[in-house]
Each structure stands twice: as C-alpha cells, then as structure tokens.
Automatic annotation (TrEMBL):
EC top class named in words: oxidoreductase
Keywords linked to the UniProt accession: NAD, Oxidoreductase
Cited InterPro entries: NAD(P)-bd_dom_sf, SDR_fam, SDR_subfam_1
Protein name: Carveol dehydrogenase
A Pfam family: adh_short_C2
SUPFAM superfamilies linked to this entry: NAD(P)-binding Rossmann-fold domains
Domain of life, source organism: Bacteria
E.C. code: 1.1.1.275
Lineage of origin: Bacteria, Bacillati, Actinomycetota, Actinomycetes, Mycobacteriales
GO molecular function, one term: (+)-trans-carveol dehydrogenase activity
Similarity comment: family membership: Belongs to the short-chain dehydrogenases/reductases (SDR) family.
UniProt key word NAD: yes
UniProt keyword annotation of Oxidoreductase present: yes
C-alpha cells in the first residue's frame, strides 16, 4: 500500500508527450499520488503526420491539472528528436524541483498513411524510437538507486511481422511497428545494465488507446483501407479485432495505472518487464512462449 501522501510521494517525474493523451493522463495520475512533474511536448504539428498534434494550450492545461492536484510542474516545449533540447528542458526542471526519480518516455506519433511515405517513416522512427532513447539517456545522469524508467511501446511491437503482403505500401505504418519493437529491445538491454545500480526500466505495451492518435483519420484508414474517407463510426467496429476482451480500446487511465505501479516502490524488484495492457490482444494472436 502507498503512504497517506500517495504512492509516489516526494518523487519527481519527467514525462515526454505530456500535453495531451496518455502523457497528460500519466502526469495527472502521478501528481495525484504525490509526484512533482517535468512535462515536455513538441506542441506543434509534423508535416508528414496526417492529424493534428498537441498545442501549447494543451500543455498549459496539463499544468493546470497537475497544480489542481496540489503538485508543482515545470513545462517546456521541446522536440524529443533533439537531445539537446530535451537535455535543456530536463535540467531546468531538475534545477527547479531538485532531483529526478521517474522517467516516462511517452511521446509518440502514429505515422500510418503519412505523406510523403518515407518522410513519415523517418519522422515516426525519430519521434518514437530516437525520441524515447533521447528522453531516457538525458535522464540517466540524474538517476540514482530507486529510480524507475517507463517506456511506452505498443501491442504492435509484439505482432508477427513475417507476413508482409504489400511491401512499401505504408512505410509510416511499418515504421511505427519497428520503432516500438526496437524500444522494447533497447529497454531490455538497458535494464540489464542498470540492475547493479538499483535503477529499474520497464516497457508498457498498450493496445488501442482512446486518444487523439487513435481517433484520427490515418488510424481510421489503417483499420478501414476499403474506404477512402472512413469515419470513427466506420472504424470503431473494426477496432475490436485487436483485443480478445470485448472492447474497441482501453482508456489512457488504464495505462496510467500501470505507469503508476511501475513508477512506485510497490514494483521495486520489477525490471526488464514487457507489460501488456492490451485487453488480451496478445493472447488472441500468439501462442505461449517464455
């Protein structure tokens, strides 16, 4: 059980992609449980990505939620693709809040159906994979025993990619899967190296999550390639195919509860974990293996 002050009381968390969606949900959930927050987001669109990304106003709203929970927050508009920008943002946050205990490398984009296609591949890899690595690696000098790193991958990382019926049809979509799979492998090996220091690193694999990324035309088109301009109503029945439980998606709060557990001392001996929050999606598609 957590203390009366909260399950991450007195800790400081660095969260990328914190302006909306899962990142905001994680920031607010950790704040409710006693953590101060360093919140970073790009807060502008990426041309190859076919839906709008978060805005500066979204990041300000995250800050208001955290403050309403009674915690301090330092925000920065920074691009996870640029390690120098991230380093500056993090170090300003650490100087104001005093330390760093938790890293939540959450920032990510869906490059499915992006245009131009190879630019979508590049932007997706740079944001999801390189951006996750940058966030973790600028944080490493600040971490000490008891710290926890949580990276967001995807149930897509666990999918069998041997069947490629139409190579080159959607490089952004393939890049999404590749970026998430490589995050998983990177954290596995990093966690191994951090164990003697008492620093933990784990990966969470969400299935469809009810955010602006999922509720976007490129995602609808990925699930309904038979339609030129599919709507949410067109895509929603097909979203169920990803999960074994009878749901089209999970909520950001479902992922935040897993982040909170991995960030807290309740999971103090849990490291190198690939934690699926996928409503049984993996069970639906894959045989058992260790």
């Amino acid at each position: 059980m957590g203390s009366a002050e909260g399950r991450v009381a007195g800790k400081v968390a660095f969260i990328t992609g914190a302006a909306r969606g899962q990142g905001r949900s994680h920031a607010v959930r950790l704040a409710e449980e006693g953590a101060d927050i360093i919140a970073v987001d790009l807060c502008q669109d990426i041309d190859s990505i076919g839906y709008s990304l978060a805005t500066p106003e979204d990041l300000e709203e995250t800050a208001r939620y955290v403050e309403k929970a009674g915690r301090r927050i330092v925000t920065a508009q920074a691009d996870v693709r640029d390690a120098a920008q991230l380093k500056e943002a993090l170090e300003r946050g650490v100087s104001e809040l005093g330390k760093l205990d938790i890293v939540v490398a959450q920032a990510g984009i869906a490059a499915m159906k992006g245009n131009p296609p190879l630019q979508a591949w590049t932007d997706g890899i740079n944001t999801n994979l390189v951006g996750t690595i940058n966030a973790i690696q600028v944080a490493l000098p600040h971490l000490s025993e008891g710290a926890s790193i949580v990276a967001t991958a995807s149930a897509a990382a666990l999918m069998d990619a041997h069947n490629k019926p139409n190579p080159g049809a959607d490089p952004g979509g393939m890049g999404y899967m590749v970026s998430k799979r490589m995050i998983s492998e990177y954290v596995h090996y990093l966690a191994t190296e951090l164990t003697p220091l008492g620093i933990r690193a784990n990966v969470i694999h969400p299935t469809n999550c009810n955010t602006d990324m999922l509720q976007s035309e490129p995602m609808y088109r990925s699930f309904r390639p038979d339609l030129e301009h599919p709507t949410r109503a067109d895509a929603e029945p097909v979203f169920y195919v990803q999960q074994a439980m009878k749901v089209p998606w999970v909520e950001p709060s479902d992922i935040s509860n897993a982040v909170l557990w991995l960030a807290s001392d309740e999971s103090r001996f849990v490291t190198g974990m690939q934690l699926r929050v996928d409503a049984g999606g993996y069970l639906k598609w894959y045989d058992y293996h260790v």
